[in-house]
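Single-chain item
Fold in token form
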Amino acid sequence: MGKKTAHYINHFIVWFFLIGTSIFVLYPLVYVVSAAFSNQQNIAALNIIPFGDGIALSNFEFLFQKTDYLIWFKNTLMVALSTMLLTIFVCALSAYVFSRFKFRLKKGMMMALLILQIFPSFVGMVAIYVILLRIGGLDTLWGLVLVYVAGNIPYNTWLVKSYMDTLPKSLDEAARIDGASHFKIFYRIILPIAKPIVIFLGITSFTAPWMDFIFPKMVLRSSKVQTVALGLYSFVTDKKNMFSTFAAGSLLIAIPFVIFFIITQKMLITSLGGAAVKE
């Protein structure tokens, strides 16, 4: 009887801990979803019980009809996609050069990339601002993309190079014997084999600019070129307290992000499973 009681007590403690942890993690998410469908704007006036204020679509109507939300969404998508594509091309090509070629200053350049990665990006915000001002990149989406791509190059070049170093060089030699150029070897042989690291690079370089706030705040000014992070922040400033509208915008921007992550996660798992190379 004593062992049975102890067994039930242990089960109760485990279930209590798991349920309590789940509620602690899920409640903020459910609260934000319920706030998106609430008529109350002030966060202090919202019901602590999810969907206690009823369900309304007024916040979504306000976003689409009285704000530039669709423009913000398009700008964010353009910045994220451009950053992803340029980062993959520049970093993969740079990594291939460092992995397969021998030239002067190779070690010095690799060490420079490593040292640059030690310092966080926002340390050079003043220098970035001045450079963008000189080249006319302020308040433009391409200027923001340039900042992201430049910040992605050091670490990601090292990352992809480390992966390419594991690929057998006999593949390159066989292709060269068949008359293939270096660039053809890169995009016809090396890139397909390095698909797992390329997909991983694409995921990370896409997600980073998606909800970044610091650099868009520094680069972008006018509403027509703002990203979603800047647009949503304008609803919860000292002058405004539109938390429900903020929650509605956050909910909408999360949907395509989750879909993208699920799709790319499956691609990453598939690529990792089929990326074995036999020498």
